[in-house]
Each structure stands twice: as C-alpha cells, then as structure tokens.
Amino acid sequence: MVQSNSFLRFIYTFVVAAFALFAFSVIYKAFFAKTDEGMTAGSRLNDVPSDLLEYERNTISVFQEASPAVVFVHNLQKRRESYFSFNVLEVEAGSGFLWDRAGHIVTNYHVVQGANRVAVTLIDGKTYNAQTIGVEPRKDLAVLKIDLKRTNVVPFGDKVANSAEARVGQKAIAIGNPHGLDHTLTVGSVSALGRSMNSIVEGITIRDMIQTDAAINLGNSGGPLLDSRGQLIGMNTLILRNTTGIGFAVPSNTIDRIVNQIIQYGRSVQSGVGISIFPDRITQSIGVDGVVVQEVYPNSPAEKFGMRGTSRDQYGRIILGDIIVSIDGNPISNYDDMYNAFDEISPGDSVDLVFLRDGEERSGLVEVVAVSE
Question: b/e map of 35-73 (b: 16 or more CB within 10 Å)?
Fold first, then answer.
C-alpha cells in the first residue's frame, strides 16, 4: 500500500512538473523568445563600433532596422517547353517590402507581371504563397498579401517620408533581396528630382520619379529607397540602360496614395470628369494639339458643364468634339498629360478646365469624380 501511494505521488509530481514546463515554454516563446517570424528590428541590432565614421554608423543602423521588412518575391509561370510538359519556372524575381502587419507586400508590377503564381520569402526564410490584391501598371506598382500570422517587424507603411520634401544631395539607401540570397545594400545620393520615365503602359509616363546613383542591381527592383532616418522615400524601379549610376525610384507619395487605394478598393482610383477621348495617334494625324473629346457620358460632370463630344452632321461629316488644352493651368497636349493632371486630384474636387470649341476658348470649374479608366 505504501509503495502504491509512493508511485501515485511520483506520477502526480511528474504530471505537475511536465505541465509547468509546458506552460513556461509557451510563455517564454510568446514574450521572450526571438522567433524568426516575430523577429524585431531591435533584435537584429548589434552594437556599432564607436570608431566608425558617423556616416558609416548611420548606414549600418538604417540597414539593420529596415532590412527585416524587405522580402524576396518569386514570379512563377507555367512554361510549355515541350508538347508533353508544362514546367513551372521562376522567370522573374525581385524584391518587395512589408507594408503593414496585415501582410500586405509592395513591389513593382513588372516583378509579378505574367505570373501564374506569386510567392514571397521573408527574412526568416519562410516562403508564403501570395495573393495579388491589385496592380497599377501605369505606376509600376503591385500589392500582394500573404497569410502573416504575426510579426514584430516594423512595416514601411509606418515610416513613409514626404517625397515632395526630398532634396538633391541627400543620402539615399537602397535595400533589396535579390534572388533570395539575403539582403544587399547600396548607398548614394538623390541625384535629381521630378524625372519622367516611360511606364509599361504605352503612352503613359511615371512622373516625379527620384533619380539616384545608389546602384539598383538586378533583382533589387521593388525594394525600398530610404533616407538617412530610415524612412521610405521611394521604391527602386529601374536603371537607365547602358549607364552607370542612373537609377530611378517611384516616389513615396505616389506609393502611399496608390497602395492604400488598392488595399481599400482592389484597384487605384482614377479621377476624371466623365468623358472618353480619341487615341493620341488620331489627334496627331489630324494635327490637333490637345485631347479631343469622343463621348460625354450621361449624367457626368462634363455633361452638366455642357461639354460636347464628337458627332456627325446630316451629311455624315465629322464634327470634332471639344478639345481640352489645359487642366488647372497644366498644358494638355496628349492623354499622358491629361492622365497625370488628374492623377493627384481627388474625387469631389474641382478643376479649372480650358477647352476649344470651333476655335473659341472656353473655360470653367468642373467637378471631378472617380472613373473606371
């Protein structure tokens, strides 16, 4: 009987100890352990040697704090190499960065263009299938989402600088995760502001881009361009072919506006007044400098203002619609000018519209609404 009681006490003690050990491990992992997925920027910070130059210390600090939020983006496509096979190949790869703790990832559109499936690898080495939430090819932007359970990494959506305040000569730090080999860092300066480059969409330019001499190497597209405070001033997008030290980044103000629209609506919000226009090739062929209104949509601000679309007379002759030549003081010569003039105008605002009708100039304030194109 004594032996039986001793055995029961042993079992009871063992169970209590095992339960206590399990509870301790759970609490430790939740609050103290530096797990890969919950790794904070602070957990990666090492003491920077005091004998380094302040410029070096700043660069190291920014890199250690920012790099955990920079990811590797896989573009997976099915390619038919023979009649009997569809092989899944990674045909394009680039970088991206964590935008928020909900798991949204920002990258370039050209990094994920044509993908059958997109995957994202985080700093902990884990790879997640990613859903494409929305894209804006005209800005070379794409927003992805992964099933991120939790993270203590500071996302870049929390540290967006006002790119309009960027200055030529200030420090520019480019971080990427090319080919999943680990993070890379290049440092330079803001070389120029307000640059325009052709987008993937024909006839549209990306304006107000930041030019930098911080090298944007192959695979670094989609990574962040940071200032000396570690704040986002742009997204590394392209280098000028056959050049050295001429790279371009989409400005942070554009990223912040478009990305939040895509997260909320699944697409970017384009402003307009409710018209369709003729393609540039047609207006150029007839020698028109401006955009010619093809159709005025019913119940649109343009119709309420009295704008006129293109029509035919009783003899079948074409009567050109109104020709828009200025929006808020910005000269309008083509669709690109009109798109960019409306780009930063929010629905509900009004624009000063100047147009020609039968050679006579007319103008007035027209309400701006959200349009599908």
Answer: eeebbebeeeeeeeeeeeeeeeebbbbbbbbbbbbbbbb
